[in-house]
Amino acid sequence: EEGPGAGGRQSTKRDGEHSCDIGAQYLTYRHTDTAFRPYLDELKVTNVVQTLSKNQIINAPARYDGEDITHYVARNGMNATSKYFMSGTHVHYSNKVARLLKKDNNQIEVTNTDGRTATFDAVVFTIPAPQLLEIDMDIPNEERDKISDITFTPRFTLMIVYEEAPPFDWTVKYHDNSIVRCTVWDNIKRGVGTEPTLLVHCQALYAVKNIDIKTKEEAGEELLAAVQEIYPELPKPIKVIPHFWRYGQVYKPYPGTPGFIELGSEPLILAGGDSFFETSNLQSCARGAELLEGRIRKRFGVPVDSEK
Hints:
Blueprint: E1 12-15, E2 18-21, E3 27-30, H1 37-45, E4 50-52, E5 57-58, E6 69-73, H2 79-86, E7 97-102, E8 108-112, E9 117-120, E10 122-125, H3 141-148, E11 151-161, E12 172-174, E13 180-185, H4 186-190, E14 197-202, H5 204-210, H6 216-230, E15 239-252, E16 260-265, E17 268-272, H7 282-300
Protein backbone atom coordinates (compact mmCIF):
# COMPACT_ATOMS: atom_id res chain seq x y z
CA GLU A 1 0.00 0.00 0.00
CA GLU A 2 1.46 3.32 -1.13
CA GLY A 3 -0.27 5.35 1.59
CA PRO A 4 0.79 5.60 5.24
CA GLY A 5 -2.30 3.76 6.46
CA ALA A 6 -5.53 1.99 5.55
CA GLY A 7 -8.43 3.78 3.94
CA GLY A 8 -7.38 5.26 0.62
CA ARG A 9 -10.13 7.69 -0.34
CA GLN A 10 -11.84 6.81 2.93
CA SER A 11 -8.94 8.36 4.80
CA THR A 12 -9.25 9.98 8.21
CA LYS A 13 -6.72 12.73 8.80
CA ARG A 14 -5.19 12.77 12.28
CA ASP A 15 -3.19 15.74 13.48
CA GLY A 16 -2.36 15.74 17.16
CA GLU A 17 -5.61 15.62 19.13
CA HIS A 18 -7.71 16.45 16.06
CA SER A 19 -9.09 14.10 13.41
CA CYS A 20 -11.36 14.45 10.39
CA ASP A 21 -12.65 12.37 7.48
CA ILE A 22 -11.08 14.05 4.44
CA GLY A 23 -12.44 11.79 1.69
CA ALA A 24 -15.71 9.84 1.79
CA GLN A 25 -18.02 11.31 4.42
CA TYR A 26 -20.61 8.59 4.85
CA LEU A 27 -21.79 5.29 3.46
CA THR A 28 -25.08 5.35 1.54
CA TYR A 29 -27.01 2.08 1.54
CA ARG A 30 -29.97 1.35 -0.73
CA HIS A 31 -32.36 -1.12 0.90
CA THR A 32 -32.74 -3.03 -2.37
CA ASP A 33 -29.01 -3.80 -2.49
CA THR A 34 -29.20 -7.30 -1.05
CA ALA A 35 -25.71 -8.19 -2.30
CA PHE A 36 -24.07 -5.60 -0.04
CA ARG A 37 -26.31 -6.28 2.96
CA PRO A 38 -24.02 -8.96 4.53
CA TYR A 39 -21.09 -6.52 4.53
CA LEU A 40 -23.18 -3.76 6.08
CA ASP A 41 -24.54 -6.13 8.73
CA GLU A 42 -20.96 -6.99 9.73
CA LEU A 43 -20.07 -3.32 10.06
CA LYS A 44 -23.18 -2.66 12.13
CA VAL A 45 -22.93 -5.63 14.49
CA THR A 46 -19.28 -4.80 15.24
CA ASN A 47 -20.21 -1.14 15.85
CA VAL A 48 -17.89 0.08 13.10
CA VAL A 49 -20.73 2.19 11.65
CA GLN A 50 -23.87 3.84 12.96
CA THR A 51 -26.79 5.60 11.35
CA LEU A 52 -26.60 9.22 10.21
CA SER A 53 -30.06 10.78 10.26
CA LYS A 54 -31.15 12.24 6.94
CA ASN A 55 -32.46 15.23 8.90
CA GLN A 56 -28.82 16.15 9.51
CA ILE A 57 -28.16 16.46 5.77
CA ILE A 58 -29.28 19.64 4.00
CA ASN A 59 -29.71 19.99 0.22
CA ALA A 60 -28.62 16.42 -0.44
CA PRO A 61 -28.42 15.41 -4.13
CA ALA A 62 -31.32 13.22 -5.25
CA ARG A 63 -29.09 10.13 -5.44
CA TYR A 64 -28.37 10.48 -1.72
CA ASP A 65 -32.00 10.97 -0.71
CA GLY A 66 -35.16 8.86 -0.67
CA GLU A 67 -37.17 6.53 1.53
CA ASP A 68 -35.17 3.48 0.41
CA ILE A 69 -31.83 4.94 1.55
CA THR A 70 -30.00 4.91 4.89
CA HIS A 71 -26.70 6.68 5.58
CA TYR A 72 -23.99 5.41 7.92
CA VAL A 73 -20.91 7.00 9.46
CA ALA A 74 -17.94 5.53 11.31
CA ARG A 75 -17.34 6.97 14.78
CA ASN A 76 -13.62 6.18 14.60
CA GLY A 77 -13.30 7.62 11.10
CA MET A 78 -14.31 6.32 7.69
CA ASN A 79 -11.03 4.45 7.38
CA ALA A 80 -12.33 2.17 10.15
CA THR A 81 -14.35 0.33 7.50
CA SER A 82 -11.18 -0.49 5.57
CA LYS A 83 -9.35 -1.44 8.75
CA TYR A 84 -12.15 -3.82 9.69
CA PHE A 85 -12.10 -5.73 6.42
CA MET A 86 -8.29 -5.76 6.36
CA SER A 87 -7.96 -7.06 9.91
CA GLY A 88 -5.93 -10.26 10.05
CA THR A 89 -3.81 -9.32 7.05
CA HIS A 90 -0.25 -8.03 7.03
CA VAL A 91 0.07 -4.82 5.06
CA HIS A 92 3.29 -3.04 4.09
CA TYR A 93 2.36 0.67 4.16
CA SER A 94 4.29 3.51 2.47
CA ASN A 95 5.32 0.95 -0.10
CA LYS A 96 4.93 1.87 -3.78
CA VAL A 97 5.39 -0.62 -6.62
CA ALA A 98 7.83 0.53 -9.31
CA ARG A 99 8.34 -2.54 -11.53
CA LEU A 100 6.95 -5.97 -12.36
CA LEU A 101 9.14 -8.59 -14.02
CA LYS A 102 7.85 -12.00 -15.15
CA LYS A 103 10.27 -14.78 -14.22
CA ASP A 104 10.97 -18.05 -16.05
CA ASN A 105 9.42 -20.06 -13.19
CA ASN A 106 6.00 -18.50 -13.87
CA GLN A 107 6.34 -16.11 -10.93
CA ILE A 108 6.50 -12.32 -10.72
CA GLU A 109 9.32 -10.27 -9.25
CA VAL A 110 7.98 -7.02 -7.78
CA THR A 111 10.29 -4.09 -7.07
CA ASN A 112 9.27 -1.08 -4.99
CA THR A 113 10.53 2.48 -5.28
CA ASP A 114 13.11 1.79 -2.56
CA GLY A 115 14.65 -0.94 -4.68
CA ARG A 116 13.47 -3.85 -2.54
CA THR A 117 12.18 -6.94 -4.35
CA ALA A 118 9.83 -9.83 -3.58
CA THR A 119 8.50 -12.72 -5.66
CA PHE A 120 4.83 -13.70 -5.96
CA ASP A 121 2.63 -16.25 -7.70
CA ALA A 122 0.05 -13.58 -8.62
CA VAL A 123 -0.32 -9.81 -8.40
CA VAL A 124 -3.57 -7.88 -7.94
CA PHE A 125 -3.80 -4.10 -8.31
CA THR A 126 -6.74 -2.08 -6.97
CA ILE A 127 -5.20 1.37 -7.47
CA PRO A 128 -6.82 3.98 -9.74
CA ALA A 129 -6.10 2.44 -13.15
CA PRO A 130 -4.22 5.47 -14.61
CA GLN A 131 -1.52 4.81 -12.00
CA LEU A 132 -0.85 1.44 -13.62
CA LEU A 133 0.79 3.32 -16.49
CA GLU A 134 3.38 4.70 -14.05
CA ILE A 135 4.65 1.18 -13.29
CA ASP A 136 7.40 -0.43 -15.37
CA MET A 137 5.63 -3.55 -16.63
CA ASP A 138 4.27 -5.13 -19.78
CA ILE A 139 0.73 -4.00 -20.57
CA PRO A 140 -0.84 -5.01 -23.90
CA ASN A 141 -1.21 -1.96 -26.16
CA GLU A 142 -4.97 -2.42 -26.45
CA GLU A 143 -5.33 -2.43 -22.66
CA ARG A 144 -2.92 0.48 -22.31
CA ASP A 145 -5.10 2.59 -24.62
CA LYS A 146 -8.27 1.75 -22.67
CA ILE A 147 -6.61 2.50 -19.36
CA SER A 148 -5.36 5.82 -20.72
CA ASP A 149 -8.97 6.83 -21.38
CA ILE A 150 -10.09 6.25 -17.77
CA THR A 151 -10.62 9.53 -15.92
CA PHE A 152 -11.37 10.55 -12.35
CA THR A 153 -12.70 13.79 -10.90
CA PRO A 154 -10.13 15.41 -8.60
CA ARG A 155 -10.97 17.15 -5.32
CA PHE A 156 -9.46 19.75 -3.02
CA THR A 157 -10.57 19.46 0.61
CA LEU A 158 -9.90 21.51 3.71
CA MET A 159 -9.98 20.49 7.37
CA ILE A 160 -10.75 23.50 9.59
CA VAL A 161 -10.55 23.38 13.38
CA TYR A 162 -12.11 26.09 15.58
CA GLU A 163 -11.69 26.72 19.28
CA GLU A 164 -15.44 27.27 19.38
CA ALA A 165 -18.21 27.89 16.86
CA PRO A 166 -21.84 28.98 16.91
CA PRO A 167 -24.47 26.21 16.62
CA PHE A 168 -25.86 25.24 13.21
CA ASP A 169 -29.00 23.27 12.38
CA TRP A 170 -27.17 20.88 10.06
CA THR A 171 -24.31 18.38 10.12
CA VAL A 172 -23.80 17.97 6.36
CA LYS A 173 -24.76 20.67 3.87
CA TYR A 174 -24.43 20.77 0.09
CA HIS A 175 -23.92 24.11 -1.68
CA ASP A 176 -24.35 25.66 -5.13
CA ASN A 177 -21.36 27.91 -4.47
CA SER A 178 -18.84 28.11 -7.34
CA ILE A 179 -16.04 26.80 -5.10
CA VAL A 180 -17.63 24.95 -2.16
CA ARG A 181 -19.66 21.80 -2.79
CA CYS A 182 -20.10 20.40 0.70
CA THR A 183 -19.43 21.34 4.32
CA VAL A 184 -19.47 18.81 7.16
CA TRP A 185 -19.19 19.24 10.92
CA ASP A 186 -17.04 16.16 11.37
CA ASN A 187 -17.05 16.22 15.17
CA ILE A 188 -20.86 16.25 15.23
CA LYS A 189 -21.19 13.67 12.45
CA ARG A 190 -18.98 11.19 14.30
CA GLY A 191 -19.80 12.35 17.82
CA VAL A 192 -16.13 12.72 18.78
CA GLY A 193 -13.85 15.56 19.84
CA THR A 194 -14.65 18.71 21.74
CA GLU A 195 -13.43 21.36 19.30
CA PRO A 196 -15.58 22.09 16.23
CA THR A 197 -14.01 20.60 13.11
CA LEU A 198 -15.35 21.52 9.67
CA LEU A 199 -14.51 19.57 6.51
CA VAL A 200 -14.92 21.39 3.19
CA HIS A 201 -15.15 19.65 -0.20
CA CYS A 202 -14.70 21.76 -3.33
CA GLN A 203 -16.83 21.64 -6.46
CA ALA A 204 -15.64 19.12 -9.06
CA LEU A 205 -15.39 21.78 -11.77
CA TYR A 206 -13.23 23.98 -9.53
CA ALA A 207 -10.83 21.07 -8.98
CA VAL A 208 -10.68 20.21 -12.68
CA LYS A 209 -9.87 23.81 -13.60
CA ASN A 210 -7.16 24.11 -10.95
CA ILE A 211 -5.67 20.62 -10.85
CA ASP A 212 -2.34 21.67 -12.38
CA ILE A 213 -2.54 25.36 -11.55
CA LYS A 214 -2.98 25.69 -7.79
CA THR A 215 -1.20 23.94 -4.97
CA LYS A 216 -3.35 22.39 -2.27
CA GLU A 217 -2.34 25.28 0.00
CA GLU A 218 -3.49 27.90 -2.53
CA ALA A 219 -6.77 26.06 -3.09
CA GLY A 220 -7.14 25.76 0.69
CA GLU A 221 -6.91 29.53 1.06
CA GLU A 222 -9.68 29.98 -1.50
CA LEU A 223 -11.84 27.34 0.18
CA LEU A 224 -11.38 29.04 3.54
CA ALA A 225 -12.29 32.45 2.09
CA ALA A 226 -15.40 30.96 0.47
CA VAL A 227 -16.48 29.34 3.74
CA GLN A 228 -16.01 32.61 5.60
CA GLU A 229 -18.19 34.32 2.99
CA ILE A 230 -20.91 31.67 3.31
CA TYR A 231 -20.74 31.63 7.11
CA PRO A 232 -19.50 35.06 8.27
CA GLU A 233 -20.42 34.18 11.86
CA LEU A 234 -17.60 31.64 12.06
CA PRO A 235 -14.56 32.76 14.09
CA LYS A 236 -10.94 32.61 13.04
CA PRO A 237 -9.78 28.98 12.92
CA ILE A 238 -6.99 27.62 15.06
CA LYS A 239 -5.90 25.07 12.44
CA VAL A 240 -6.37 24.52 8.70
CA ILE A 241 -5.09 21.46 6.81
CA PRO A 242 -5.58 21.24 3.01
CA HIS A 243 -5.61 18.02 1.02
CA PHE A 244 -5.71 17.18 -2.68
CA TRP A 245 -7.23 14.08 -4.24
CA ARG A 246 -5.97 13.62 -7.80
CA TYR A 247 -8.19 10.56 -8.07
CA GLY A 248 -11.45 11.39 -6.33
CA GLN A 249 -14.31 9.51 -7.98
CA VAL A 250 -14.33 7.65 -11.27
CA TYR A 251 -15.80 9.79 -14.05
CA LYS A 252 -15.10 7.75 -17.18
CA PRO A 253 -14.55 4.08 -16.26
CA TYR A 254 -13.07 1.23 -18.24
CA PRO A 255 -15.28 0.32 -21.24
CA GLY A 256 -18.03 -2.12 -20.30
CA THR A 257 -17.22 -1.86 -16.55
CA PRO A 258 -16.22 -5.55 -16.21
CA GLY A 259 -15.18 -5.26 -12.53
CA PHE A 260 -11.56 -6.20 -13.28
CA ILE A 261 -9.24 -7.04 -16.16
CA GLU A 262 -6.37 -9.46 -16.69
CA LEU A 263 -3.02 -7.96 -17.59
CA GLY A 264 -1.48 -11.41 -17.65
CA SER A 265 -2.65 -15.00 -17.15
CA GLU A 266 0.65 -16.93 -16.80
CA PRO A 267 1.56 -15.63 -14.26
CA LEU A 268 -1.70 -14.04 -13.14
CA ILE A 269 -1.77 -10.24 -13.03
CA LEU A 270 -5.12 -8.57 -12.32
CA ALA A 271 -6.31 -4.97 -12.09
CA GLY A 272 -9.51 -4.14 -10.24
CA GLY A 273 -11.06 -1.35 -8.19
CA ASP A 274 -13.55 1.40 -9.00
CA SER A 275 -11.87 2.15 -12.35
CA PHE A 276 -13.84 -0.85 -13.62
CA PHE A 277 -17.23 0.13 -12.18
CA GLU A 278 -19.77 2.87 -12.90
CA THR A 279 -19.40 4.49 -9.48
CA SER A 280 -16.84 4.91 -6.70
CA ASN A 281 -18.37 3.53 -3.51
CA LEU A 282 -17.92 0.79 -0.93
CA GLN A 283 -20.44 -1.39 -2.75
CA SER A 284 -18.26 -1.38 -5.87
CA CYS A 285 -15.23 -2.21 -3.74
CA ALA A 286 -17.00 -5.22 -2.22
CA ARG A 287 -18.27 -6.51 -5.56
CA GLY A 288 -14.86 -6.00 -7.14
CA ALA A 289 -13.20 -7.96 -4.33
CA GLU A 290 -15.64 -10.85 -4.90
CA LEU A 291 -14.87 -10.94 -8.61
CA LEU A 292 -11.12 -10.83 -8.01
CA GLU A 293 -11.37 -13.58 -5.41
CA GLY A 294 -13.30 -15.76 -7.83
CA ARG A 295 -10.64 -15.36 -10.53
CA ILE A 296 -7.82 -16.14 -8.10
CA ARG A 297 -9.62 -19.23 -6.79
CA LYS A 298 -10.14 -20.45 -10.35
CA ARG A 299 -6.49 -19.90 -11.26
CA PHE A 300 -5.18 -21.87 -8.27
CA GLY A 301 -7.96 -24.44 -8.10
CA VAL A 302 -9.33 -23.38 -4.72
CA PRO A 303 -13.04 -24.34 -4.33
CA VAL A 304 -15.51 -21.55 -3.54
CA ASP A 305 -16.56 -23.27 -0.32
CA SER A 306 -12.96 -23.44 0.90
CA GLU A 307 -11.65 -20.94 3.46
CA LYS A 308 -8.12 -21.05 2.00
